[in-house]
Specification:
The protein is globular. It is of the alpha/beta class and about 350 residues long. The chain has 2 domains: about 160 residues, NAD(P)-binding Rossmann-like Domain (Rossmann fold, 3-Layer(aba) Sandwich), CATH 3.40.50.720; about 170 residues, Dihydrodipicolinate Reductase, domain 2. The strands form 2 sheets. A 7-stranded mixed beta sheet has the order 8-9-7-10-13-12-11. It has a 6-stranded parallel beta sheet with strand order 3-2-1-4-5-6. Helix 1 crosses helix 11 and helix 7 runs parallel beside helix 9. About 25% of the residues lie in helices and about 20% in strands. Bound molecules: NADPH dihydro-nicotinamide-adenine-dinucleotide phosphate and N-acetyl-L-glutamyl 5-phosphate. NADPH dihydro-nicotinamide-adenine-dinucleotide phosphate (NDP) binds next to helix 1 and helix 11. Its EC number is 1.2.1.38. Keywords: Amino-acid biosynthesis, Arginine biosynthesis, Cytoplasm, NADP, Oxidoreductase. This is N-acetyl-gamma-glutamyl-phosphate reductase.
Length: about 350
């Protein structure tokens, strides 16, 4: 049987990245799977090529409206819709359909935290699509519903989890992350005008209000077993917008426990990620940079002990649209359908 895959939100950045990756996926190249409906909202009725000129083979495909009728009859549906839109769409899809949601709607287990940061009713909680988190991979194998992580939580979690799980630092976390503009999606936003962005760097959502904070707390809370309720995990997170289209470079720090050495830290990361295809601890002395992971499903990490300040510092780089969304979504598809986890996904970046 050929698996039919629909992509809802195909005109967006996340939907476009999912399609870019699927066009090179072995299951689509050899006919085990094929692309069905490609849906949109305000741009329904127009050809995909008007919005995603880089997806040549799909240029003439006409976008249909994101609704139940158009998404019916597919074995797999990717949702790449604005926050709050996934719940109703997913509910109308049968339990046998594999639904992979790039939005935030089903990421959080804590309904109160959801309401506090998103201001709407909590839709529910699905298996969390970060296979590299201990225990997560098993829950994703064969899953019919997957919540793809946010881009900042992906890199922050992978950067700090080994340190916290090994008890090498206290969970009093400070993260500053430089991000490209595509993280905001492609709808017009005044602060993302070219003239405001070029030659500029600006902090936003400062002071504990960014939506990704509860997601990072949830993930890193699970690294500290004595803290099931995440009560003593604190996360100070400051995002900084920079003039680049893709990429996140995150500096993640936490207070080192007394007696911890640089060797302890490296050992923790080498052990945690020894078998992970998409997480690379760089050789000593080399530092992650966004260009090195551009277009790839990789996260690059480097860890240092700042002895004078008594802090662990981990630098992480990710392509927000690849491992930060579209690549993670395809990695989760592979796990859900029992395909090789890395099928269609590259660890090789685009540089310069
Ligand atoms: N960009 C990123 O780096 C990341 C994005 N995500 C998540 O992925 C999802 C999509 O983000 P992104 O691609 O950046 O966003 P975009 O703004 O680029 O795209 C949004 C898509 O949703 C469609 N859409 C707009 N309004 C509605 C609506 N009311 N109902 C249904 N569909 C609608 C748009 O269609 P049309 O063009 O026809 O109006 C478009 O296809 C979001 O939930 C986002 O949080 C997650 C991690 C990282
Ligand atoms: C530059 C910029 O605005 N970035 C977005 C990234 C969020 C994102 O894409 O993740 P979600 O799926 O959780 O929305 C932001 O900071 O809100």
């Amino acid at each position: 049987m050929t698996i039919r895959i629909a992509v809802a939100g195909a005109t967006g950045y996340a939907g476009g990245e999912i399609l870019r990756i699927l066009l090179g996926h072995p299951a689509l190249l050899d006919g085990r799977a094929r692309l069905g409906a490609l849906t949109a909202w305000s741009n329904a009725g127009s050809p995909l090529g008007e919005h995603q000129p880089h997806l040549g083979p799909l240029a003439d495909r006409i976008l249909t409206t994101t609704d139940t009728a158009n998404l019916a009859g597919h074995e797999v549906v990717f949702l790449a819709l604005p926050h709050g839109q996934s719940g109703a769409v997913a509910q109308a899809l049968g339990p046998d359909v594999t639904v992979i949601d790039c939005g935030a709607d089903f990421r959080l287990a804590d309904a109160a935290a959801w309401s506090r940061f998103y201001g709407t009713a909590h839709a529910g909680t699905w298996p969390y699509g970060l296979p590299e988190l201990p225990g997560a991979r098993a829950a994703l194998q064969g899953a019919k519903r997957v919540a793809v992580p946010g881009c900042f939580p992906t890199v922050a979690t992978l950067a700090l989890y080994p340190t916290l799980a090994a008890g090498l630092a206290a969970p009093e976390i400070v993260i500053t992350a430089v991000t490209g503009t595509s993280g905001a999606g492609r709808s017009l936003k005044p602060h993302l005008l070219g003239s405001e962005i070029m030659g500029n760097a600006s902090a936003y959502q400062v002071g504990g209000i960014h939506r990704h904070i509860p997601e990072i707390v949830q993930n890193l809370g699970s690294a500290t077993p004595a803290d099931a309720a995440h009560a003593n995990v604190s996360v100070s997170f400051t995002p900084v917008l920079a003039p680049m289209s893709r990429g996140i470079l995150a500096s993640c720090t936490a207070p080192a426990q007394p007696g911890v050495t640089a060797r302890d830290l490296r050992d923790a990361y080498e052990k945690a990620y020894a078998d992970e295809t998409f997480v690379t601890l760089l050789p000593e002395g080399r530092w992650p940079q966004t260009a090195a992971v551009l277009g790839s499903n990789s996260v690059h990490l480097q860890v240092a002990l700042d002895e004078a300040a008594g802090r662990v510092t981990v630098i992480g780089a990710v392509d927000n649209l690849a491992k930060g969304t579209g690549g993670a979504a395809v990695q989760c598809l592979n796990l859900a359908l029992g395909w090789p986890e890395d099928a269609g996904l590259s660890t090789i970046g685009v540089a310069p």
